[in-house]
Amino acid sequence: MQRPTGRWIAGRLAHALSVVALSFALACASSAPLPPPAPLPAAGEIFLVDPMEGYPLTAAEDLSERLRWGFRELLAGDLEGAAAVAEALRGRDPGFHPASVLAAQVALVEKRAAEAQHLLERVVDELPGYVAAQLVLGHAAEIRGEVLAAFDAYRAVAAAHPAAAERAAELRPRALDVLANRFDDALARGRLEDAAAALARLEAWAPEDRRTLESAWRLAAARGDRAAERSVLERLASREPERREVLERLAELDLEEGRFQLGIARLEALVERYPADRELAGLLERAKFLWRLENLPPAVRQLADAPQLSRAELATLLYWLVPEVRVVTVDNPPIATDIIDHPRHDEIVRVVSLGLLEVDETVHRFAPDRPVTRAQVLAALLTLLVRSGEPLACLEGVRDLDLRSSRSLTCRTAARCGLLEEEGDCLPAAPVSGAEALELFRALDHLSAS
User: Fold this and answer.
1) 373: which strand partners?
2) Which of 178, 273, 314, 442 has the smallest C-beta neighbourhood within 10 Å, fewest atoms?
3) pTM
4) To 10 degrees, the CA torsion angle through 241, 242, 244, 250?
């Protein structure tokens, strides 16, 4: 075994003597004269408070006195002495948080802001109201340009310390801007969880700020959370009772949730304010149409969800949505052997009697369960419009008999009258869902009312 060299022995002896000296200094801290404080740079001194300030836990008296000795050394400019005290206390009791605060204060004065921040992050997680720790952490984060972390730290103890309150007020606009931009970026990228995290901080920091409410609205809409969307829209409406887009969306939610009278009332108020807005007028018409549907028998309302309507189901919608179909007198009902016991017999008879749908006279069959085509729906609605006598330019020269015999005429007329956006959308042989049929009925209502 190699014998220790003289240099090694001398080094170990020096180390032992330094430990003894430090321990002696700490033990005598209460009786030794305190070093006079020296002024620190103005930018930092208000953040260097007694490490025990705001400490919510009970500390042993000897630890507290030794800590204050180290803090006085820091204020006197003896950074090495203060650091030695902090390290000795942390070694004796790693859970003594004020020792970490003193170590962070030394690091902050020595321009090691990252180290100071690292030393205190766990401390404030455990003790968020710890004034001395949050002051140092906030200043370190601010030096490093971490606006959110700095504001968070100052805000946590603003009520307990005027310097923290002042810095929090100064940083608040910038912090909210950074956070709002972070939310916008996350939402634009479809990262809803990140957006939710940013929103949670906005709501904690500025729950009534308009940007917070706007962000909450956008996130609820992106998630399809109608309840959350309504809640935030109602808060926005209470702040800005005349804001159009908020009232429009609330009205749409009212209609989706079956609150037809409330939705219609909102839309009527908007139409009164913007009488020239055709889009609003269209929304109001749609709302009133949906309210009419709500008052229909349940079996009829269920047709709105049908993926594909049959001829009998179209007859049912014509019967319930067009008053003249419901009141027509049938003297000579058509002969159709396949509707005698059909549950929609009465509706089919009236529709066929008006010539809106036809019976195959060769075999005397109506084919009630066959899918109805778009051409048949359009022809039936345009026939009703022609017979109503409405003086519409799009119907000039069009006869109802021609509509039933010419698909091209039906498609062309439907596009001219606005039942379709353009003729190419006709797809005359295609089936029709319940929702599509109802939109066509609503367009017919608009034409009849215009």
Assistant:
1) 431
2) 273
3) 0.68
4) 20
